[in-house]
Amino acid sequence: MASNVNPTVRRRRLGQELRRLRELKGMTAEEVAERLLVSQSKISRLENGRRSISQRDVRDLCGVYEVEDQRIVDSLMQMAKDSRQQGWWHAFGDIPYSVYIGLETDAESLRTYEPQIITGLLQTRGYAEALIPGALPETSIADIEKRVQVRIRRQERVTAEHNPLRLWVVLDEAALRRIVGNKQIMREQLEHVAEMSKLPHITVQVLPFDVGAHPGINGQYSILEFSDTADSSVVYIEGVTSDLYLEKAHDVQKYTVMYEHLRAQALNVEQSRQLILDVAKEYAR
């Protein structure tokens, strides 16, 4: 087993292939569920990659779809086996957004809009340590430290020497001016963002207050894209108790167009970096 197998991505690819086989057979998820005496929601979760897929599930589905080529069956069975391996994040225990981490770990590029806070991949340890208990006031000290460690580990994708994550961030000006922790933490955080924005694979733009109403007014979202053409882009919207993943082409296209408008309305890279540094100086007073 290769050490770089990503179980989240394996589940997603396997689910897409199982959906393709079902559609080729001309069956609905409800019909498949009736044949296997399971719930329709189970079939949907298997196909969207949000549920672990066992080799037995694959065998039963291939039987329903009358897949005769044993090579296809064997390939799907291997994918099911791979999908049950553990990613690096499992070492930290139960992480609520583990599905997202799996996708982010394998993504080629990430575009994100943050209206209130500095995006996690650019956060300093001090900022993260102040942010998490503020956002989740009932979180234990142990869980806060675990979340901070996971956040720092995730940042290895943008600092990797080879094939780093291409990151494009649009920050609302509010994220610069909302004091998380104290002024010293904010100054260090903004200086860090400005420095990271100099890397060739990282772009940071600021959406100033005077823009007024804009397409991101409804809140944070991210668009993940993958190098493998078999993996469709995903729009990720973080929630309080659950997260939303949009993969349908028209949904991804709508959010992509919204993001293009945000980029166009935001300050350019140089202006954004200068504003970030100017606000950082204000915190030094």
UniProtKB/TrEMBL annotation:
Gene3D superfamilies: lambda repressor-like DNA-binding domains (1.10.260.40). It comes from the Bacteria. CDD domains: HTH_XRE. Residues 18-72 form the HTH cro/C1-type domain. PROSITE patterns: HTH_CROC1. InterPro entries: Cro/C1-type_HTH, DUF5753, Lambda_DNA-bd_dom_sf. SUPFAM superfamilies: lambda repressor-like DNA-binding domains. One of its GO terms (molecular function) is DNA binding. This is Transcriptional regulator. It comes from Streptomyces fumanus.
